[in-house]
């Protein structure tokens, strides 16, 4: 498996050096692996800190900037960051109004962010946490680690980031973030496995002619395999999965997300089928995002995320944002 | 052997570092079947840092050796394995106090305390197909180091038939059956190394 890298051990550090030089709006601490807004700490603003394994770019580093995250902590590929890293991020962006940790529900992420929260509180920083667990493919939460955090993370980070930018206090930003997390649902499909630098090849074998339904974003196989089918049927299954679970009564934000190895040409075609399937089920779409936002290295595949919004959330969605990966309104 | 000192535990952790380095590929391969294909490489990074740190500034007491190793794993491994193995050793180190030598029985009790803390932190129980399926029988067999190593190895083997209920493998449901849990496999390496070092005394 050929990769455009200098060596598996250097992948994350090299990417951070490249991000630093590409985006003057970011301050990148390559040694300690912390990405912050270059104007951090912003006084009298709640700070948002997120992070997780690398390999999901642009999540989370590409969402650092005014109107979204104050800091991101990239771990090793598909491995959560360590508490020291998260603590460093929190102390460097804390503007005196507390810090919100946005955590995807994976055992490692939860443990490391919990440990970091204790350390930050020891240093006198008020910390609130929101757990994102939007993946409806995990049906049996009693006998699993619970639903995974996937595409809904983007909605939480954007909407809570906008609320923080408007000056909302920590309890309100955290409450809003939890409301967004509760209102978001995702479902993903893989056409092939991603290849991790450490393994040097695909993390699982997927025979030609088969699809993985209900995948996560770490190269873990999905819930079941089915015979390969077209975009229309994949859209039907995905839309049914998220709508049957959310049972929306209001307008939706829709994210049609590529996993990193599917061309935008295919994603737009898939999006057309998603919109048809949503229409057939009477769902109202308020805003749409199509592209590679929460990826899994070079995995071929896609996910559909919906988030039910009211007027307040829609206003926060439209509020200005200025990050490497999301940018509008200013 | 009846007493354990700091040098003994440094030799143990050095041996673990060698074993994890040797077996990193196998652990990652196990992890790629039901996880995310990084367990061996993450643990190797952590135990390399532990071994290097213990060589540079060797702590003087058994408790300090384990506490240092625990803190280092928490700071370098990431994922679930870092906090879990780190907590195991940190709590065990704390339980050993500041004495320069402790009896085997005390080390056994301390490691049991550490394993209990792993259960509390991760929320898993015996039979959930996690590292606990190797750790629990191992610490129950202490202070007999050879019996502990055997219990850990058998515990790890027994995870092959289990369905995962915790951690990333749990998302696979019944598809997690038929594979050894990578965390249980690395736990077996820890206790194999402990028995080897004890046998060499």
UniProtKB/TrEMBL annotation, chain A:
Q: Which UniProt keywords apply?
A: Kinase, Transferase
Enzyme Commission number(s) of this protein: 2.7.1.121
InterPro entries to which the protein is assigned, alphabetical? DhaK_1, DhaK_dom, Dihydroxyacetone_Kinase
UniProt GO BP: glycerol catabolic process
GO cellular component labels = cytosol
Domain DhaK intervals:
7-328
Give any Pfam family that matches: Dak1
Highest taxon listed in the record's lineage: Bacteria
Entries under SUPFAM superfamilies matching the protein: DAK1/DegV-like
List GO molecular-function terms, semicolon-separated.
Answer: glycerone kinase activity; phosphoenolpyruvate-glycerone phosphotransferase activity
PANTHER family for this protein? TRIOKINASE/FMN CYCLASE, TRIOKINASE_FMN CYCLASE
Specify the protein name.
Answer: Dihydroxyacetone kinase subunit DhaK
Q: Could you tell me which species this protein originates from?
A: Streptomyces hoynatensis
Q: Which gene encodes it?
A: dhaK
């Amino acid at each position: 498996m050929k990769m455009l890298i200098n060596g598996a051990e250097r992948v994350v550090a090299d990417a951070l050096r490249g991000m630093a030089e590409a985006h003057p709006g970011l301050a990148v601490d390559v040694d300690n692996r912390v990405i912050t807004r270059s104007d951090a700490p912003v006084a009298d603003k709640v700070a948002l800190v997120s992070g997780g394994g690398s390999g999901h770019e642009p999540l989370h580093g590409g969402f650092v900037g005014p109107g979204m995250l104050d800091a991101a902590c990239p771990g090793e590929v598909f491995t959560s960051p360590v508490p020291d890293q998260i603590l460093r991020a929190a102390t460097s962006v804390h503007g005196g109004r507390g810090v919100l940790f946005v955590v995807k529900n994976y055992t490692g992420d939860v443990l490391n962010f919990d440990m970091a929260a204790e350390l930050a509180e020891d240093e006198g920083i008020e910390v609130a946490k929101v757990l994102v667990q939007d993946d409806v493919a995990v049906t049996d939460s009693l006998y699993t680690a619970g639903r995974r955090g996937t595409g809904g993370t983007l909605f939480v980070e954007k909407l809570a980031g906008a609320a923080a930018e408007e000056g909302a206090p920590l309890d309100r930003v955290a409450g809003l973030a939890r409301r967004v997390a509760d209102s978001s649902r995702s479902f993903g499909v893989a056409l092939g496995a991603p290849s991790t630098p450490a393994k040097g090849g695909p993390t699982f074998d997927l025979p030609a002619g088969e699809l993985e339904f209900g995948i996560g974003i770490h190269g873990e196989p999905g819930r079941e395999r089915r015979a390969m089918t077209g975009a229309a049927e994949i859209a039907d299954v995905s839309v049914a999965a998220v709508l049957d679970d959310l049972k929306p009564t209001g307008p939706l934000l829709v994210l049609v997300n590529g996993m990193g190895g599917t061309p935008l040409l295919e994603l737009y075609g898939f999006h057309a089928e998603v919109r048809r399937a949503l229409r057939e089920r009477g769902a109202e779409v308020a805003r749409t995002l199509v592209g590679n936002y929460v990826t899994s290295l070079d995995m071929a595949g896609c996910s559909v995320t919906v988030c039910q919004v009211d007027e307040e959330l829609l206003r926060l969605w439209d509020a200005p944002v200025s990050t490497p990966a999301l940018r509008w309104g200013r | 052997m009846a007493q354990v000192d700091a040098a003994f535990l440094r030799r143990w952790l050095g041996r673990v570092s060698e074993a994890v380095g040797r077996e990193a590929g196998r652990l990652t391969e196990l992890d790629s079947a039901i996880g995310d294909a990084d367990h061996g490489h993450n643990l190797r990074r952590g135990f390399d840092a532990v071994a290097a740190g213990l060589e540079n500034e060797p702590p003087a007491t058994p408790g300090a050796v384990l506490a240092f190793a625990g803190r280092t794993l928490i700071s370098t491994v990431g994922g679930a394995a870092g906090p879990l193995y780190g907590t195991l050793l940190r709590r065990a180190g704390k339980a050993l106090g500041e004495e320069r030598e402790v009896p085997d029985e005390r080390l056994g009790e301390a490691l049991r305390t550490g394993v209990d803390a792993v259960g509390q932190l991760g929320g898993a129980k015996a039979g959930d197909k996690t590292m606990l399926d190797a750790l629990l029988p191992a610490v129950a067999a202490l202070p007999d180091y050879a019996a502990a190593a055997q219990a850990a190895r058998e515990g790890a083997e027994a995870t092959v038939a289990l369905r995962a209920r915790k951690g990333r493998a749990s998302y696979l449901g019944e598809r997690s059956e038929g594979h050894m849990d990578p965390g249980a496999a690395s736990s077996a390496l820890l206790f194999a190394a402990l028995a080897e070092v004890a046998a060499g005394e």
